[in-house]
From TrEMBL:
<dbReference type="InterPro" id="IPR015853">
    <property type="entry name" value="ABC_transpr_FbpC"/>
</dbReference>
<dbReference type="InterPro" id="IPR050093">
    <property type="entry name" value="ABC_SmlMolc_Importer"/>
</dbReference>
<keyword id="KW-0067">ATP-binding</keyword>
<keyword id="KW-0547">Nucleotide-binding</keyword>
<dbReference type="InterPro" id="IPR003439">
    <property type="entry name" value="ABC_transporter-like_ATP-bd"/>
</dbReference>
<keyword id="KW-0408">Iron</keyword>
<keyword id="KW-0472">Membrane</keyword>
<dbReference type="InterPro" id="IPR003593">
    <property type="entry name" value="AAA+_ATPase"/>
</dbReference>
<dbReference type="InterPro" id="IPR013611">
    <property type="entry name" value="Transp-assoc_OB_typ2"/>
</dbReference>
<dbReference type="Pfam" id="PF00005">
    <property type="entry name" value="ABC_tran"/>
</dbReference>
<protein>
    <submittedName>
        <fullName>Iron ABC transporter ATP-binding protein</fullName>
    </submittedName>
</protein>
<dbReference type="Pfam" id="PF08402">
    <property type="entry name" value="TOBE_2"/>
</dbReference>
<keyword id="KW-0406">Ion transport</keyword>
<dbReference type="InterPro" id="IPR027417">
    <property type="entry name" value="P-loop_NTPase"/>
</dbReference>
<dbReference type="InterPro" id="IPR017871">
    <property type="entry name" value="ABC_transporter-like_CS"/>
</dbReference>
<keyword id="KW-1003">Cell membrane</keyword>
<dbReference type="GO" id="GO:0005524">
    <property type="term" value="F:ATP binding"/>
</dbReference>
């Protein structure tokens, strides 16, 4: 449905998007995350037709809509957009805002469509309100309905939830995902918030300095980050120093761990092992003890920051009835499904 192939975009002498490729099938939701200025919005603008590529191709439904030689105008692309600031018209009612992009339809068709969209986004009775009479979340639902009214094939969402409370953001992201899946709309979301990306996306692209570091499912990104940058950017975790005993075993202060054969490593190599909070299990019977440095209550779980005997710090996500005080020693063990290793960065 949407394919980006070797896309490069430059502003004057600065190439801000560098040979990026990814694809989404019909109804799939992709998400671009990365630090500020890494080129996420520029990619959305290229898909919408507002930026021309310096190299590469954008395809929609198999057809080239952007290349060095081709640039289909935005109105002809069947691409809808939802922005961070909603860009709703304050002097129009909710219903008129939604009908804005479907002026060509008959009055009856327009009314029927607006009614159906209001129902779809969960605001069936608010058509006659004005925008200032709505909450931020309701306004964002109206912005979504307005973007969906012309029946786009692809929907682009640029930080659509960033002005909403963190807690509410995830709920709205899940609701919008359900709506997009119901309509089988292909969508690309740009966000700073990885939890929002996890809640919404089938595929996530992590960008850095105009390059796509990894394009993968949320599960793969979290558990098999392709680079140290992705490992640091996605999810919480620490790098625990380790030494390779052979290409299949690594020794750390938490024990010796087996892993799949890594031909590029040899005995004696120093590595960093990625340890996520859910890799460390609280276990009173374990001989390995750690001191609670900090704790953060998360409802069902507590996120502990622990100091190991050698001074290294790790996180541990424990069920919240395992309630321990700061300064207390608790037993832990490492429960790794697979190891993620990177060459030691500082040569320590
Ligand atoms: N119209 C423009 N002219 C020149 N440079 C631009 C223009 N628009 C964006 N840039 C630059 O291109 C780079 C990528 O910008 P872009 O807005 O795509 O980043 P982003 O990842 O969306 O950032 P943010 O998360 O802060 O919104 C930045 O260095 C930005 O300063």
């Amino acid at each position: 449905m949407l394919a980006i192939e070797q896309l490069a975009i430059a502003y004057g002498p600065h190439t801000v998007v560098k040979e990026i490729s990814f694809a989404l099938a019909e109804g799939q939701i992709g998400c671009l995350v990365g630090p500020s200025g890494c080129g996420k919005t520029t990619i959305l603008r290229a898909i919408a037709g507002f930026e021309a590529p310096a190299a590469g191709v954008v395809r929609l439904q198999g057809q080239v809509v952007s290349s060095v030689n081709t640039q289909v105008v935005p109105e002809k692309r069947k691409v809808g957009m939802v922005f961070q600031d909603f860009a709703l018209f304050p002097h129009l009612t909710v219903a008129d805002n939604i009908a804005f992009g479907i002026a060509k339809l008959s009055k009856a068709d327009k009314a029927a469509k607006v009614k159906a969209l209001l129902k779809l986004v969960g605001l069936p009775d608010l058509g006659q309100r004005y925008i200032h009479q709505l909450s931020g979340g309701q306004q964002q639902r109206v912005a979504l309905a307005r973007a969906l009214a012309p029946e786009p094939k692809v929907l682009l969402l640029d930080e659509p939830f960033s002005s909403l409370d963190a807690e509410f953001r995830e709920v709205l992201a899940r609701d919008i995902r359900t709506i997009l899946k119901q309509l089988q709309i292909t969508a690309v979301l740009v966000t700073h918030d990885q939890f929002e990306a996890f809640a919404m996306a089938d595929m996530i692209g992590v960008m850095q300095l105009g390059q796509l570091q990894q394009w993968a499912t949320p599960y793969e990104l979290y558990h098999r980050p392709a680079s140290r940058f992705v490992a640091d950017f996605v999810g919480r975790g620490v790098m625990l120093p380790g030494t390779m005993l052979d290409p299949q075993q690594v020794e750390t202060c938490l024990g010796i761990f087996q892993q799949r054969y890594l031909p590029e490593t040899k005995a004696g190599d120093r590595v960093d092992v990625l340890i996520r909070p859910d890799d460390i299990v609280h276990d009173d019977d374990s001989a390995i003890k750690a001191t609670v440095l900090d704790k953060s209550f998360r409802g069902s779980h507590i996120l502990y920051t622990l100091a190991l005997s050698g001074g290294e710090q790790v996180y541990c996500l424990a069920l919240s009835h395992h309630n321990h005080a700061i300064g207390e020693q608790i037993g832990i063990r490492l429960d790794l499904d697979h190891l993620v290793l990177f060459p030691r960065s500082h040569g320590v």
